[in-house]
Amino acid sequence: MKFVSSDTSLENLSIINASSLVSGGFSSEGSLRVDGIIKGNVTVGGTVVLGNGAEIHGEVKATNITLGGKIFGSVHASGKVILEKNSMLLGDLFAAILVIEEGARFEGKSSMEKNE
């Protein structure tokens, strides 16, 4: 029996699991869930979600970004960036909407720009 989901966004979801290390850039037209480590720039057309133990060492460009882990590099989001409790962003941030939860660490410049 084949499982059919009405949520088509899962069809374009890439997952980097906790035991994975990606050396080099990553790009996708869909969304990305990271629980491992990426050493390189990340560009996705959808949403980037970083789990608690995840790290990205490079620039991140996406529509929306939810950070539970660490990013060492600049962040560009045409939509929303959420820095969750215990997350860390060391780099400049450009987003239309910014949410910083208590306990998050952010070191860099921020600009809330609206991309048309």
What does this molecule look like?
With 116 residues, the protein is mainly beta. The protein has one domain. The chain contains no helices and 16 strands. It has strands at residues 13-16, 21-23, 26-28, 31-34, 37-39, 42-44, 47-50, 55-57, 60-62, 64-67, 70-72, 75-83, 88-90, 93-100, 105-107, 110-111. Strands 1, 3, 4, 6, 7, 9, 10, 12, 14 and 16 form a 10-stranded parallel beta sheet that branches. It is globular.
Structural class: mainly beta
Helix proportion range: under 10%
The counted number of beta strands is 16
What is the beta-strand fraction?
Answer: over 45%
Calculate the mean pLDDT score and round it: 90
- What Rg, in angstroms, do the CA atoms define? 14 Å
End-to-end separation in angstroms reads 44 Å
Number of helices: 0
Low-confidence stretches: 1-8
Order of helices and strands: EEEEEEEEEEEEEEEE
Please tell me the total number of domains. Answer: 1
The 3D shape can be described as globular
State the major sheet: 10 strands, parallel
Topology:
Elements: E1 13-16, E2 21-23, E3 26-28, E4 31-34, E5 37-39, E6 42-44, E7 47-50, E8 55-57, E9 60-62, E10 64-67, E11 70-72, E12 75-83, E13 88-90, E14 93-100, E15 105-107, E16 110-111
Parallel strand pairs: 1-4, 2-5, 3-6, 4-7, 5-8, 6-9, 7-10, 8-11, 9-12, 10-12, 11-13, 12-14, 13-15, 14-16
List keywords for this structure.
116 residues; mainly beta; 10-stranded parallel β-sheet; 6-stranded parallel β-sheet; 16 strands; disordered N terminus
